[in-house]
Amino acid sequence: MDKTDKEWIQELMNKFQQSEITKIKIRCGEIELEMEKEASRGKKSSGIISETDTDGQEGSQNPAEEEILSPLVGTFYAAPSPDEEPFVKEGAEITADTVVGMVESMKVFTEIPAGVQGSVQKILVHDGDFVEYDQPLFTVRTEQP
Amino acid sequence: MNMHILGNSLMTTVQDLGRTGYQKYGVNVSGAMDPYSLRTANRLTGNPENAAALEMTLMAPSVVFDGPSVIALAGADMNPSAGGIPVPMNRPVYLPEGTVLSFGRPRRGCRCYMAVSGGLDVPSVMGSRSTYARASLGGFQGRTLIKGDSLPVGKMPEKGKKLQNILEKQKRKTAWTPWSAGIYPICESFLFRPFRYTEGLQYSDFSEESRTALERNRYRVTVHADRMGYRLEGEKLHLAVQKEMISEMASLGTIQIPSEGYPIVLMAEHQTCAGYPEIGQIILPDTARAAQLKPGDTMTFEKISLEEAENIYIQTEKQMRAMTAGIDAHIEQGGL
């Protein structure tokens, strides 16, 4: 590992810290690098960036995975009613407007729009779970550029 | 502003929470069969929960308002659409002037409630606007609504205006909030749970077998099911010893057993006294659920104590209160 490699890793770490990505795994020649943010630890995440070329390119990092967070505190519902199919299943293609679930508090049911485009990778909560503000509910694999 | 009925339907009436205090004179309470859905629809439009609204049974008429309106639909899902666009249940919906609201077949449930912000301003008779059709009392001319009827809508309350302002700003003609409200979903797993009852006045006069039979068997709602009561079909029930009865008070949810043995469940427009022995008394939250059953649907029964019944009633009211606070908070915060 030479000096430019170290600088490159340092730069990558800084960018990772500033970004919204919680976990990243990079292989570039002999170098294999895996970074994960403190807050995301304990969550199962399979976000893998297949190829990233950040060399000298500002802001070209496109997150491969994003999370949909709960907008409020309450009970999470995966389907519009107990007898109906869930709003989305793992693998479903979604757009920013797709309703992915509902959170109930005080008998008011608030729809959760995906906010991102891509495919649902993992559903992190179960129907009927109590969820907190900003708790990750889904991971979404976003489109590659 | 007026609401115009554009088509005929099965049984569409104006209902509020009923005419209380006159049963001693033989005037029944009437009112919404599923009062929780009526209250929900009213709250969603900013109305007091006792405002008069439409109760539509199995088949709903198309309606149009001759002014911009805020409405809400709760109870049975009858595939509502406004100007051809599907409209969701359990939400405040803004309709620009002249938007035709129409309905399809009921997807779930039997009775749909449509509240309009301001309420239906029909005359109050003996303290209520609800229709008691058998006596031609209250509601709109004391009868079921037909094509061509035109009903006045009351003054929109402040909360309704707030909702209208918020929803008008969306770039769609017909608009609704991204949130909905309700204390229960109208779905199979909810509708077909056992109907809970407490012991009726003559419970102990029934044979041991009959008392067990009521809990062990399924009963089918026959076509003789209306706002007055439901005749059920299934295992026959009998008294241990036949006896003559003096007519007694009857109530919403009373399960009577006439001599042929098939149960009758009394509903919103029940008679005020009855002469058949009463095996049970369905609890209030469950009579509201029974209101969403159609002929052909089945009922099972489960006996509970009076304490349990009171507890369920209190819990349900707590949920209604929480929902009301939740809706009001959303309206206050700008409705979204």
How would you summarize the topology of this molecule?
The complex is a heterodimer of chains A (about 140) and B (about 325).
Chain A: H1 3-18, E1 23-28, E2 31-36, E3 65-69, E4 74-77, E5 93-94, E6 99-105, E7 108-113, E8 118-123, E9 130-131, E10 136-142
Antiparallel strand pairs in A: 1-2, 3-10, 4-6, 4-9, 5-8, 6-7, 8-10
Chain B: E1 2-5, E2 11-15, H1 35-44, E3 53-57, E4 63-65, E5 69-77, E6 81-82, E7 85-86, E8 93-95, E9 100-102, E10 108-116, E11 150-152, H2 158-168, E12 175-176, E13 179-181, H3 188-191, E14 195-199, H4 208-216, E15 219-225, E16 229-233, E17 248-249, E18 254-256, E19 264-266, E20 273-274, E21 278-282, H5 284-290, E22 298-299, E23 301-303, H6 306-332
Parallel strand pairs in B: 14-23
Antiparallel strand pairs in B: 1-4, 1-11, 2-3, 3-10, 4-9, 5-8, 5-10, 6-7, 6-9, 8-12, 14-21, 15-16, 15-22, 16-19, 17-20, 18-19, 18-21
Helix pairs in contact in B: 1-6
Structural class of chain B: alpha+beta
CATH architecture name of the largest domain in chain A: Beta Barrel
CATH class of the largest domain in chain A: Mainly Beta
Largest sheet of chain A: 4 strands, antiparallel
Distance between the termini of chain A: 30 Å
Number of helices of chain A: 1
Shape of chain B: elongated
- The name of the CATH superfamily of the largest domain in chain A reads RNA polymerase II/Efflux pump adaptor protein, barrel-sandwich hybrid domain
Shape by Cα distribution of chain A:
elongated
The topology string of helices and strands of chain B comes to: EEHEEEEEEEEEHEEHEHEEEEEEEHEEH
Report the uncertain regions of chain A. Answer: 40-60
% residues in beta strands of chain B:
25-35%
Per DSSP E runs of 2 or more residues, the count of β-strands of chain A stands at 10
| Strand order, sheet with most strands of chain B | 22-15-16-19-18-21-14-23
- Percent of residues in helices of chain B comes to 10-25%
